[in-house]
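To illustrate the input format used throughout this study, we show a single complete record. The first block contains the structure-token representation of the backbone; no residue identities are included at this stage. The design step must infer an amino acid for every position from geometry alone.
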């Protein structure tokens, strides 16, 4: 009889889906369902913190872990220290075979237009011969920077190189520009040492830069670099991830994005 009652209780909990304790980051959180997500601070962690209450109402405790680089969140996710991360786009995810093998995009949320910034010039016309431009040193964002420069006539790239473009793919450089490759997070701090720098939207925002107002050139909202929530393969339909998707792609979040970044520095894709 006792065995039958226990079986019925377990079955009932399974029907409710999220009533049983789950493992988040490899640790059992008895008494609540925890979802641990790694994110860079702006706007990713900001958006996650915005929906904590929405998930709590569904019995999910959202734990947000801040990171200041793009690589560690993927390493932590593969290691099981995170349930998901929110900081990157698909071209970046696809730069590492280990990531491609283990991880996948669960859903997209927004675009952060990529721009060229400077403390010493206000327009491309002021860019001097031999000027130094800092670009990200990771393959996807480095290629993104070069494509932005090429689209604005600053350099010419080999036909068909696409997002994998490198400095070696430059076929014409009329201003004899020099390129300094730096970790993406360091680019805002490089502005005092270079003539201009191409900076990811989230790092520009963290540095107090307004992409619409402060950039010399910027991507349009049609950019293919959608920021995604990433999980281990097979976890795309985890009820916690499904709930997170509904929360992050809700009218509440879209309205927040529109009002907070009304300059177009963050654009919702839903």
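Output of the design step:
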């Amino acid at each position: 009889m006792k065995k039958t009652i226990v079986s019925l209780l377990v079955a009932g909990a399974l029907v409710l889906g999220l009533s049983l304790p789950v493992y988040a980051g490899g640790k059992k959180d008895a008494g609540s369902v925890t979802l641990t997500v790694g994110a860079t601070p702006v706007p990713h962690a900001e958006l996650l913190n915005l929906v904590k209450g929405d998930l709590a109402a569904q019995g999910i405790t959202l734990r947000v872990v801040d990171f200041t680089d793009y690589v560690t969140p993927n390493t932590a996710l593969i290691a099981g220290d995170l349930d998901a991360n929110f900081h990157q786009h698909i071209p970046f995810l696809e730069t590492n075979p280990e990531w491609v093998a283990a991880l996948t995009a669960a859903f997209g949320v927004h675009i952060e237009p990529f721009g060229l910034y400077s403390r010493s010039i206000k327009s491309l016309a002021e860019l001097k011969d031999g000027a130094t431009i800092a670009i990200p040193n990771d393959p996807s964002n480095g290629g993104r920077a070069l494509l932005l420069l090429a689209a604005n006539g600053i350099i010419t790239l080999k036909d068909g190189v696409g997002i994998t473009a490198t400095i070696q793919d430059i076929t014409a450089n009329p201003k004899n520009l020099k390129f300094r490759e730096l970790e993406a997070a360091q680019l805002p701090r490089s502005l005092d040492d270079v003539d201009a720098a191409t900076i990811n939207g989230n790092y520009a925002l963290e540095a107090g830069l307004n992409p619409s107002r402060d950039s010399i050139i910027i991507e349009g909202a049609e950019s293919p670099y959608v920021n995604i929530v990433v999980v281990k393969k097979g976890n795309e339909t985890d009820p916690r991830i499904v709930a997170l998707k509904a929360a992050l792609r809700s009218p509440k979040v879209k309205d927040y994005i529109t009002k907070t970044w009304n300059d177009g520095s963050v654009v919702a894709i839903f």
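Structural context for interpreting the output: Residues 1-31 have pLDDT under 50 and may be disordered. The radius of gyration is 21 Å.
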